[in-house]
Design brief:
Strand 3 and strand 4 form a beta hairpin. Helices cover 31% and strands 24% of the residues. It has one domain: 2-Layer Sandwich (Alpha-Beta Plaits), CATH 3.30.70.3460. By secondary structure, the protein is of the alpha+beta class. It is built from 10 helices and 12 strands. The protein is globular and about 55 Å long. Helix 2 crosses helix 3.
């Protein structure tokens, strides 16, 4: 399926399932009711969009740190002749979800998550040593202003459009959180991080494996959202196949006394999917990071320049993605990751 062949209902459906996938026994029927069609049509569209590799996955989206995992962004400087081999080795690590080459002296950027009983900085430095990185910079989140990719497939907003609903007020990231999960929680996480099937009652297979009913699953999800362990249940799209072929990481040098103000302003731009404060280094003095995705380089640049103008931050850089080496969800609590006291059978 070519992107150009998507009709307006396809695009509205894609926007909707990224934002608000219904947690009800028949979610595709519920979606159909809001879109003015029927369940059979929605199921067929979801199947086509998956077949075209536009919809990557529909599942629960968990908060890595709230589950007790430790995560960080990592920047590496590799000799150009080692970049491909180094990226391949980095991508092989199960805790690496995103791995990109970017147009900068630090040319390899990836996210790394490890179980609570591992030290994420030590793992990152060990990977750097293994691949022959000249420098490795560990860049954990200090404060969170925004997280969550929602691509405007329907084309309903301008690159400089603003929003407030998903902006955090400089939320501090807790360190070393206690893992207060039960074996039942682990079993639920394992099931709900799977891709949801396109069938009329898609939660029933998970319920059968868990030995519970749908209402129990939905109640558990509501509780996990209330305590911050689950962000939402939603679709994740393949950016490039959905038409968003360009992305840039804007990095900004902001005076400490302006971080709260500027971070909230940056996060208010609808095209910004992620906004974080991170530590600085003498050779990389930027403390605020924004991710922008667009249908073109020009669209991304329009957002970034609007941010620069609105915030009056003069010292910044735009790190354009040049190659995607890996992009997939981290799977939590695989059998080898779980301590004996939380062990449950793998479904």
């Amino acid at each position: 399926m070519a992107l150009a062949t998507l009709d307006s209902l396809d695009r509205r459906l894609l926007n909707r399932i990224q934002e608000d996938f219904p947690l009800v026994p028949a979610p595709y029927a519920a979606l159909a009711a809001t879109l003015g069609t029927d369940e059979e049509d929605v199921l067929a569209r979801i199947a086509r969009l998956r077949g075209a590799a536009i919809v990557r996955q529909i599942s629960a989206i968990f908060d890595t740190r709230a589950l007790g995992y430790r995560s960080t962004l990592v920047a590496m400087r590799l000799p150009p002749e080692r970049l491909d081999a180094g990226a391949q080795r980095i991508s092989a690590h199960p805790g690496v979800s995103h791995n990109y080459a970017r147009q900068h002296d630090y040319n390899l950027w990836f996210t790394l998550a490890v179980p609570p009983w591992q030290d994420v900085a030590e793992v990152a430095q060990a990977l750097g040593h293994e691949v022959g990185a000249e420098r490795t910079r560990v860049l954990p989140t200090l404060r969170l202003f925004k997280i969550g990719v929602r691509l405007d497939v329907a084309g309903e907003r301008a690159p400089e459009a603003r929003e407030t609903a998903r902006v955090y007020a400089g939320q501090d990231v807790e360190r070393g959180q206690r893992v207060d999960l039960t074996p039942r929680d682990i079993a639920m996480i394992r099931e709900l991080q799977r891709d949801l099937p396109a069938e009329s009652r898609p939660f029933l297979p998970a319920c059968a494996r868990l030995g519970c009913d749908e209402d129990s699953v939905f109640a558990w999800c509501a509780g996990m959202q209330a305590c911050g362990k689950m962000r939402r249940f939603a679709a994740v799209l393949r950016h490039q196949n959905a038409g968003f072929v360009s992305n840039a990481m804007g990095v900004w040098k902001v005076p400490p006394e302006r971080v709260d103000e500027v971070g909230s302003l940056m996060a208010s731009f609808a095209a910004v999917s992620h906004c974080y404060e991170r530590p600085t280094y003498p050779d990389f003095p930027y403390n605020l990071y924004t991710m922008v995705h667009g249908r073109s380089r020009e669209e991304c640049l329009r957002t970034l320049e609007a941010i620069a103008e609105r915030t009056a931050v003069a010292e910044h850089a735009y790190l354009w993605s040049s190659r995607e080496f890996k992009k997939e969800r981290v799977l939590y609590f695989l059998e080898e990751d779980v301590p004996p006291e939380l062990a449950v059978p793998v479904g």
